[in-house]
Amino acid sequence: MLNLMFTQLAFFALLALPFIAANKQTVGIEGKLTCNGKPYSGAKIKLYDHDTLTMDDKLGETQTDNTGYFKLIGTGSEVSRLNVKFNVYHRCGKTLPVCYYKYSWAVPQSYVSSGTYPQKMFNAQTIELSLLEKHRDCLN
C-alpha cells in the first residue's frame, strides 16, 4: 500500500515538474507593413512559441494601425528557451476577400528575455507584403 502511494506521488510530481520548473520569458517585436509601397492597415500579427511535438503556443496578437505599424509583446512559460516566430496574415494583392496570405519569420533567441518585459525589441523593419511568397491560410 505504501509502495503504491509513493508511486502515485512520484507520478504526479513528474507531471507537475514542467509547470514548477517553467521560466516566464518575454519577447517583443515591432515593424511596419506596406503593400505596393503604401502603409498596410488591418494585417493580423500573431506571435508564437514554436513547439516541435505539440501545437504552437500563441503568445500574443495585434493588428497593424493606419500607418502599417505594429508592436507586440508576448510572454510564455517554458522549461527551455522560447522558440519564437511571428506570422503575418494579410490580403495585399488579393482580388477576393476570401482567406489570407500568411508569412512567418523566426525571431532570434537573443530577443527572448527572462521575466515579463522584453529587454530589447526585435525590429522587423519595413516589410513589403507584395514581394513575399503567397501562402494561403483560411483558418487563422
UniProtKB/TrEMBL annotation:
Q: Which UniProt keywords apply?
A: Secreted, Signal
In the UniProt record, does the keyword Zinc-finger occur?
no
Cleaved signal peptide residues? 1-22
Give the matching Gene3D superfamilies: 2.60.40.3330
Pfam families, sorted: TTR-52
Secreted recorded as keyword: yes
Primary localization: secreted
Task: Provide one Gene Ontology cellular component.
Answer: cell surface
- What is the annotated localization of this protein? Secreted
Family, per the entry?
Belongs to the nematode transthyretin-like family.
Q: What protein name does the entry list? A: Transthyretin-like family protein
